[in-house]
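Protocol step 4 of 6: structure prediction from sequence.
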Amino acid sequence: MTTTLLEFADVHKRYGKHHALRGLTLSVPAGTVGLLGPNGAGKSTLMKVLLGLLPFEGTAAVLEHDVRAEPTQIRARVGYMPERDCHLLGMSAVELCSYAAELSGLPPSEAMQRAHMVLEFVGLGDKRYQRIDGYSTGQKQRVKLAQALVHDPKLLLLDEPTNGLDPAGRDEMLALVSSLPSRTGCSIVLSSHLLHDVEKVCERAILMHEGKIVYSGTIEALRKDGQKDVYELRVKDGEERMQKALEGRGLRVEREGLMLVVHVKDARPTELLFQVAAAEGLQVRHLSPRRLTLENAFVRVVNEANEAKAS
C-alpha cells in the first residue's frame, strides 16, 4: 500500500518575472490534507505542477510516480476537481463523467456504468441527462466532484470545492467530501483559502504563503504549537487595570472584548496571574490555557513568516 501521497524537492515555478513557487521541499503521507493559503499563495499552481500540467524546476512525485516520467500513471490514479468549470459546452453530466472515465483508462461500457453510479452519489441522478450549461453553481460543483471520482482514484485533488456556494451548499459539499475516505479508501488534498473547509475535512495541513511552505503537519499540532504559554483571563470589573498591571510585569497582553489573552512564560503561570489579580484587588472569573482556532494559528504562522522575511 502506498503511504506517501506527494513528494517534491526544490520545486520552483516561474511565470516570467513572477516566482510562484519558491523551492518547495516536502513529503506528504497518506490521509486528508488541507492546502491552505490566501489567494495568490501558489496553491493552484502546485496542484497543476503535481498533475504534470505545468513545466517546473526540481523533482516531484505523486503516489510514488515521477511527475515528468509517469504522467499517465498519475492521472489514472488521481482525481482532479479544478477551481474553474471543466465541462464542454452542450455536454450532459453523464457524458462528461463517462468521458472523464475513458480519459482515465476505463473502457466505454465500464465508464458509462461508473458515470451513472457517481452521479447518484453526488445527488445528480435525476439530472444526469440535462446539459451542464443550465446547472446552478452548486450543481456544477457537484458534477466537477463526480468527474473527479468516476474512475475510483486513490487520491483526490480538490481545488476550492466550495467556491461560490452558499452556507448550506458548502456544508453539503463538505459532508460529501468528508465521507469519501471511509467509503472509498482514497486520500484527499483539499486546496482552499477557507479555513472552515479544511477543519471540516482534514487531519493535516500545508500552509503556503508567497510561494513557500510555512507549515506542514497535523492541524492539532499547529494549534498546540501556538498556544504554549498563552492564557485566557477574565476579571470582574477591571480589565484595563489588570492589563496595565500585567504589562508592568513585562507580559504581552491582547484584548478580545472582556477577555485578556496573556502570553506568560513562568514555571507557575496560573499562580503568577492570580498573584497579580490579588495585588490589584481584582476577582478572577475565568482562567484557562488558550486553545487556538485554525484561523488564529494560521495568522500566527503567516506573521512569523513575514517577520522572518523582514529581519
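Step 5 (inspection) to follow. DSSP finds eleven helices and 14 strands in the chain.
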